[in-house]
C-alpha cells in the first residue's frame, strides 16, 4: 500500500483515468461499462483507443484490430517481468492474476521495487500493488465520468499529454543498460518514419526493428 | 443491472474488442515466457523490444494525437514533451518535475496562443 501511495505514477494514473471516465461519458458509454473496461482491459492507451474508435462509429472488428496492435507491448513486458516473480515452487496458475495486472506502470515499478522484496513474497507484492492501483483507477474512472460535463477542453488535452510524458520519463528512469536507452531513442525516432507506410502494424515493425538494433549494439559491445 | 452496464451487447463488444485483445498478449507472455531464465540474453532482447514498442506508442500519441490533444499544435506538443524531458534530466531523474514541467509548457503555450 505504501508503494501505491509513494509513486507519482499513481497520480498520473489517477488523472489519466479521470480522462478516460470523461471520454466515456462524452461518447455515451454507461458508467458500468467504462468501469468494467478499467477492470478487464487495464491498459490506458488501449481503453482510449477502444472508446474513441467505437465512439467515432468504427466497427467492432476495426476497434479490435486497433486495440490488438496497441496491446502487443504487453507480451514482452510479461515475459520480462515473470522471471523476477518465480521461485522453484511457483506454478503457472499462481501467476495468472499477476499477469493480468501487468501494464506499463506495473512493469516499470516492478523493475524499481521488486529487487527490494524477498523473492517468495514478490507475487503477493504484485497482487497488492496491482489491486491498489486498480482501486485508484476505478475511483478515478467513476469521478471523471461524473465530472465530464464540467471539464474544459484544455484540461482534457492536458490529461491526454500525461500518458506520453509519464511513459517516456518512467521508461527513461528505468534504463540501465545501453540497449534500453538505444531502444527508447530508436523506437521514438523510427515510429514516425514507419508510420508513413500505413501498414496497420507500424508500432510492431518499428518496435521490433529498434529493439533488435539496440540489442545488436549491446551484443557487439559485450564481445568487443 | 442493465441500466448500470448498458445492454449485454455493449458488454460483449467490450469483451471482444477490449478484454480479449489485451489478455491474449498477456497470457501468451505467461505461456511462452515461462521457460526464460532471469538474467538470460534473450531477456535483454525482449526488454529492448518492449521498450521500443512502448516508445512507438509514445510517438504515436504525439504524432497522431487523440481527441482534445489534437487541438494543441504539433510544435507545442513536441516542445512540451522535450521540456518535460529536460526538467527530468535537470532534476536528476524526477518524474514528477518532468511531468509538471511538460504540462506547464503545454498550458502556457495554449494560453499564449489564446
Outline the structure in words:
The complex is a heterodimer of chains A (224) and B (114). Helix content of chain A is 78%, strand content 0%. Chain A has helices at 2-6, 8-26, 31-40, 44-55, 60-71, 74-85, 96-101, 104-113, 122-147, 153-174, 178-195, 202-223. Chain A is globular and about 60 Å long. Chain A is mainly α. Chain A folds into two domains: 2-174, no CATH class; 176-224, no CATH class. By secondary structure, chain B is an all-alpha fold. Chain B has three domains: 1-35; 37-66; 72-114. Chain B has helices at residues 2-5, 8-32, 41-63, 74-90, 95-113. Chain B is flat.
Defining traits:
heterodimer, A: mainly alpha, 12 helices, 78% helix, globular, B: 114 residues, mainly alpha, 77% helix, flat
Chain-averaged pLDDT of chain A: 88
Percent helix range of chain B: over 70%
The strand count of chain B comes to 0
User: Over all CA atoms, what is the radius of gyration of chain A?
Assistant: 18 Å
Q: What kind of oligomer do you see?
A: heterodimer
Largest sheet of chain B: none
Element string of chain B (H = helix, E = strand): HHHHH
Strand content of chain B: under 5%
Major sheet of chain A:
none
Task: Give helix and strand order of chain A, one letter per element, not per position.
Answer: HHHHHHHHHHHH
Low-confidence stretches of chain A: none
How many beta-strand runs of chain A? 0
Largest interface: A-B, 99 and 78 residues
Structural class of chain A: mainly alpha
Amino acid at each position: 500500500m505504501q508503494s501505491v501511495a509513494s509513486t507519482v505514477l499513481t497520480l498520473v494514473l489517477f488523472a489519466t483515468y479521470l480522462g478516460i471516465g470523461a471520454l466515456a461519458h462524452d461518447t455515451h458509454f454507461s458508467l458500468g461499462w467504462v468501469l468494467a473496461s478499467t477492470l478487464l482491459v487495464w491498459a490506458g492507451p488501449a481503453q482510449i483507443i477502444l472508446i474513441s474508435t467505437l465512439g467515432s462509429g468504427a466497427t467492432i472488428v476495426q476497434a479490435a484490430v486497433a486495440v490488438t496492435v496497441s496491446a502487443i507491448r504487453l507480451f514482452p513486458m510479461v515475459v520480462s517481468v515473470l522471471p523476477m516473480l518465480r521461485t522453484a515452487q511457483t506454478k503457472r496458475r499462481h501467476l495468472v492474476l499477476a499477469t493480468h495486472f501487468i501494464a506499463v506502470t506495473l512493469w516499470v515499478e516492478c523493475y524499481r521495487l521488486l529487487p527490494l522484496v524477498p523473492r517468495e513474497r514478490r507475487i503477493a507484492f504484485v497482487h497488492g500493488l496491482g489491486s491498489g492501483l486498480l482501486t485508484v483507477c476505478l475511483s478515478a474512472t467513476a469521478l471523471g465520468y461524473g465530472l465530464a460535463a464540467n471539464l474544459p477542453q484544455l484540461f482534457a488535452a492536458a490529461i491526454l499529454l500525461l500518458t506520453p510524458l509519464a511513459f517516456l520519463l518512467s521508461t527513461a528512469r528505468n534504463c540501465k543498460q545501453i540497449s534500453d536507452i538505444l531502444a527508447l531513442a530508436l523506437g521514438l525516432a523510427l515510429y514516425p518514419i514507419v508510420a508513413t507506410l500505413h501498414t496497420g502494424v507500424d508500432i510492431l515493425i518499428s518496435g521490433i526493428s529498434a529493439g533488435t538494433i539496440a540489442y545488436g549494439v549491446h551484443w557487439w559491445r559485450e564481445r568487443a | 443491472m442493465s441500466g448500470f452496464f448498458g445492454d449485454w451487447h455493449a458488454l460483449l463488444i467490450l469483451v471482444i474488442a477490449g478484454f480479449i485483445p489485451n489478455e491474449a498478449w498477456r497470457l501468451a507472455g505467461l505461456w511462452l515466457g515461462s521457460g526464460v531464465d532471469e538474467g538470460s540474453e534473450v531477456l535483454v532482447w525482449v526488454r529492448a523490444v518492449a521498450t521500443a514498442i512502448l516508445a512507438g506508442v509514445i510517438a504515436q500519441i504525439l504524432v497522431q494525437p487523440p481527441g482534445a490533444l489534437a487541438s494543441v499544435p504539433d510544435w507545442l506538443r513536441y516542445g512540451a514533451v522535450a521540456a518535460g524531458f529536460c526538467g527530468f534530466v535537470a532534476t536528476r531523474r524526477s518524474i514528477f518535475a518532468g511531468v509538471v514541467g511538460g504540462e506547464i509548457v503545454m498550458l502556457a503555450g495554449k494560453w499564449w496562443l489564446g
